[in-house]
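Priority: medium. Attachment 1 of 2:
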């Protein structure tokens, strides 16, 4: 049986990325992101599994993160420990990437794949709780202990676990609801299964073939949808390591150009439409078998967002 290790989703609040890990999902769930989405450009969000139930936009992430951090601080105080709420790191422009790698022309013109801008906006992490960290007792209060570990059965014979005595875990339950972990992680796994099914669809493969032909005609030979991002990533790493701003600037220009070609070929090939058609078909069994869980998760999300907005 495969155990989903959550990447310490509720146990790394003090690193400022805990909710990011929770919102964006686990690698074990089968989802991979590429492309970039800005709040004003939601075109490439049109195809997200289960109506994007596992996705939170940047404003929602920030709102819910802050609400949860306040709850963590309150919990830690009741246990006699100090905790300073961490700001949400917002420099990763790829965080809103479409799970199928869909990219609109507007996104491409605005930020390319979001790679260079993310690297340039990144700031060194400063632990606001470095001084408050009082050793193992402080860590146990924040992260919980294995003695209080709870395992939840997930689709596909997987398991998800959390430490019920963790302030970080209890804060999430207070903000979202007691059943949130089970519902969210279940949908995350199911969404990953939908993505895998869609990626294997014949109609999607045919659209990808048309996309490759379009890219080749434009002088950009790409074996798959990840190839353009991989190429820019490699160039960016080299440019950043050199410390030469001119080289980084050149990579930024290359990224924008390649992203625009990529998005244009996706549009020409009908890739988004093929993905949407395949996704509608792949989701049907999930919507039938987990209709109640899907509705319950949406209800918890609406309540959490409404409450966080009132108390923010």
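Attachment 2 of 2:
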């Amino acid at each position: 049986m495969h155990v989903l290790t959550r990447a310490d989703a509720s146990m790394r609040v003090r690193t400022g990325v805990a909710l990011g890990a929770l919102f964006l999902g686990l690698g074990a769930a089968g989802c991979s992101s590429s492309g970039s989405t800005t709040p004003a450009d939601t075109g490439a969000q049109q195809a997200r599994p289960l109506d994007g139930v596992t996705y939170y936009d940047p404003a929602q992430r920030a709102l819910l993160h802050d609400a949860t951090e306040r709850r963590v601080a309150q919990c830690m105080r009741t246990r006699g420990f100090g905790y300073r709420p961490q700001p949400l790191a917002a420099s990763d422009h790829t965080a809103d990437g479409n799970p199928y790698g869909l990219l609109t022309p507007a996104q491409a013109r605005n930020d390319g794949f979001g790679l260079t801008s993310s690297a340039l906006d990144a700031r060194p992490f400063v632990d606001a709780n470095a001084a408050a960290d009082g050793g193992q007792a402080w860590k146990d209060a924040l992260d919980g202990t294995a003695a209080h570990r709870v395992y939840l059965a997930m689709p596909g014979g997987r398991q998800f676990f959390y430490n019920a005595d963790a302030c970080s875990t209890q804060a999430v339950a207070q903000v979202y609801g007691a059943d949130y972990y089970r519902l969210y992680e279940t949908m995350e796994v199911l969404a990953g299964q939908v993505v895998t099914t869609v990626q294997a669809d014949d109609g999607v493969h045919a659209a990808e073939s048309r996309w490759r032909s379009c890219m080749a005609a434009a002088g950009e030979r790409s074996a798959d949808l990840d190839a353009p991002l991989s190429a820019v990533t490699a160039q960016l790493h080299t440019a950043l390591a050199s410390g030469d701003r001119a080289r980084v600037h050149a990579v930024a220009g290359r990224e924008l150009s390649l992203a625009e070609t990529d998005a244009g070929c996706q549009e020409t090939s009908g890739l988004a439409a093929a993905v949407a058609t395949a996704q509608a078909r792949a989701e049907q069994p999930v919507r039938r078998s987990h209709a109640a869980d899907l509705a319950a998760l949406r209800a918890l999300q609406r309540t959490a967002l409404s409450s966080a907005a009132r108390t923010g």
